[in-house]
Amino acid sequence: MAPKFPVYYEHIHTCKQTGARLGRVHTPHGSFMTPVFMPVGTAASVKGMSPEEVSEMGAGIILSNTYHLWLRPGSEIIAGAGGLHKFMNWPGAVLTDSGGFQVFSLAKPKNITEDGVLFNSHIDGAKKFLTPELSMKIQNDLGADIIMAFDECCPYPAKYEYADKSLEMTTRWLARCIEAHQKPDTQALFGIIQGSMYKDLRQKSAEQITSFDLPGFAIGGLSVGEPKDLFCEMLAHTVPYMPEDKPRYLMGVGTPDYLIEGVLAGIDMFDCVLPSRMGRHGTILTSTGRKIIRDKKYADCYLPPDPECDCYCCRNYTSSYVRHLLKANEMFGLRLCTYHNIYFLLKLMERIREAVAEDRLADFAKDFQEKFYNS
After folding, report:
1. SS3 string of 298-319?
2. Which of 293, 272, 274 is nearest to 283 (CA)?
3. Alpha-carbon distance 150 to 312, whole Å?
4. Are 64 and 94 in contact (CB under 8 A)?
5. Model pTM?
6. 272 and 243 in contact (C-beta within 8 Å)?
7. For residues 67 and 346, what is the distance between their CA atoms, to the nearest angstrom?
8. What is the pLDDT of residues 247-283, one digit of tens each?
9. Cβ burial 141-171 (10 Å sphere, 16+ → b, else e)
10. 117 contacts 108 by C-beta, under 8 angstroms
11. Are 33 and 60 spatial neighbours (Cβ–Cβ below 8 Å)?
């Protein structure tokens, strides 16, 4: 029987030690194993990296940003090029977010109404009005394999009444997105669960959003400044209300500890700007924790930035050299740090998948976290 949706989940194994999932997501532009970390290519580019480099690292899917690409260069230009895949020469799958988070985090001032959001562009101050229908039109133009429903991401903290009204509007907006989606045969629309930091609202939103027959679902509005224990509590409470036979996506998460917590909770997909943003500021992720490679103590360190890593950066260059590049404001230094960080997270997810397959994820998580955070 042919799959109902252009993107679908294949379950492979459940870790006997933790209940975490190993699977595969199939898309029109290839399949990728899960749990997966998706590098973020905000403006049709993973900052500092070529698409070929990101593909060679093993990434099967990247994320691009509806809000930024709408403002610049415009979705019509990308549609004219044949969509994002051809525009940026990316062979794998692409997910585009709806623009909702950027409207609420970048655009100021803004006026949120039932119809949509009126705001001023963060680029030139021009007035813009983004609606569920327009978000779908832009994402249809971009041609991503997975597109996200337009939602409101509640700030943290948010009052209960506000969070309740917000999630209800997000549900109504989802219905409008489904109605406006013009390419359901080639692009999979995911709904987004909200509800802020209230268990009953998370359950309410999850039940409403998953009542729609969609190919996948996401959790939004977490990792927005709340304490880690509250993040874990909300995550653990929400995931059981999500279908087991469809991809589960936790939006905006990319630190190693949060990735591991997400996988333990049953999440399949993650994204975050963290690896490239940290790299541009001279900080790298290593097997023994974060390393600020700009620090003076690395001036005469002739070891690789991470001696346990086999990425292009660590195979070919020393900490001393990378620090020199950063201090001299050489772009190559930023590229090396970014390359390493993205590679590090992709390899972490590969090791997590191996641990799930071998029913030892709890042991792996304990050993990794002790080494990463206590070294």
Report:
1. HCCCCCCCCCCCCCHHHHHCCH
2. 293
3. 38
4. yes
5. 0.97
6. no
7. 26
8. 999 999 999 999 999 999 999 999 999 999 999 999 9
9. bbbbbbbbbbbbbbebebeeeebbebbebbb
10. no
11. yes
Q: What is the pLDDT of residues 182-231, one digit of tens each?
A: 999 999 999 999 999 999 999 999 999 999 999 999 999 999 999 999 99
Separation between Cα atoms, residue 343 and residue 345, nearest integer Å? 6
Is 97 one of the annotated active-site residues of the chain? yes
Pure H helices in 97-244: 100-105, 132-142, 160-180, 199-209, 228-238
Query: Which residues, 6 or more positions from 291, have their beta carbon under 8 angstroms from its beta carbon?
Result: 283, 284, 285, 298, 305, 306
Cα first-last separation, the chain: 51
Strands 188-193 and 146-148: parallel
DSSP SS3 for 208: helix
- Residue 100 pLDDT exceeds 90: no
The encoded tokens of residue 277 equal 């943003």
Q: Which two tokens stand for residue 30?
A: 């290839």
Tell me which residue has tokens 């062979």. 91
Task: Look at residue 108 in the predicted model and tell me its pLDDT.
Answer: 73
> In what side-by-side order are the strands of the sheet with 30-34?
8-14, 21-27, 30-34
Query: What's the average model confidence in pLDDT over 107-133?
Result: 88
Q: Which two tokens stand for residue 35?
A: 């749990």
CB 27 within 8 A of CB 319: no
Mean pLDDT of 108-124: 87
Percent of the chain predicted with pLDDT > 70? 99
For residue 99, which of 143, 145, 152 has the smallest C-alpha distance? 152
Residue at token pair 């230009």: 77
Given the residues 268, 271, 363, 367, the one annotated as active site: 271
Burial class (CB in 10 A: 0-12, 13-18, 19+), 44: buried
Q: What are the distances in angstroms from CA 129 to CA 48, 56, 92, 94, 117?
A: 31, 39, 31, 25, 6
Crossing angle of helices 256-265 and 331-357, rounded to 10° = 30
Decide if 164 is catalytic: no
Active-site choice (97, 141, 164, 306)? 97
